[in-house]
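From the shared-data thread, chain only:
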Amino acid sequence: MTVQEQTTREGAVEYEVSDGIATIWLNRPHVRNCFNWEQLTTFGAALERAEEDDDARVVVIRGRGHTFSAGADLNMLDSEFLATSANSIKIAQVSARTFDRAFNLAKPTIAAVEGYAVAGGFELSISCDFLIAADDAKIGDFHIRRALFGGAGPIYRLPRYIGLRKTKELLFTGKLLSGKECYEWGIANVSVPAEDIDQAIIDFAAPMIDKSSFTMRITKMAANRGLDGDTETLLALESMTCNVAHQSEDAKEGVQAFLEKRDPVWKHR
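Structure, as tokens:
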């Protein structure tokens, strides 16, 4: 580990930064990284840290023990903590807000999935901007197998990624897809042999690390808002985002660097 790297361990979550990539590790491998309340809240804090970390240009979410996350800890679901509808709604809302934080983070987010990404783990994986999957991963909603329902994004995100019919196929059956199948369905951006996933993360993140973080932030914001809205509104959004980008110091530097045939030096503003 070089002196530029940082590693912080906070029990259920670990945070480390190396060469522009912040990795948030889910660290409950003995239960396939199922989320309990501690891990959910600590994970949310790790996302906030990544947002503010100038050394983090891309954020990767992974699971220790060669598995991503098998969702909510069923011991928690069977406890008095969720004995009432009010408590059940609370944890669903907190989960949704936390995973949405990954979707709206100012920096690109990548879910790197090995092993299981099911139920809440699946919801987290599709809340990231990108998904890199091991070929033999097991990925899917799974809730209906236990007469449960996912409250953190599947009915919002999945139809926009793969269409309503394929969404229903996953939600109604609880079937699990391999990493290869997720790539074929349009859920994963990349599928690789499990032993190649570390290099796949580096290769996928590399073209984003050297970009202007200011322009990356407004581009991501505009792209996310492009999921909704009428044509007139979205064209106006594009025009305004274009103007903001063009007036930035980094845009001026980008043009000047091109004219001078050199690499740009970003100020990230």
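The longest strand covers residues 13-18.
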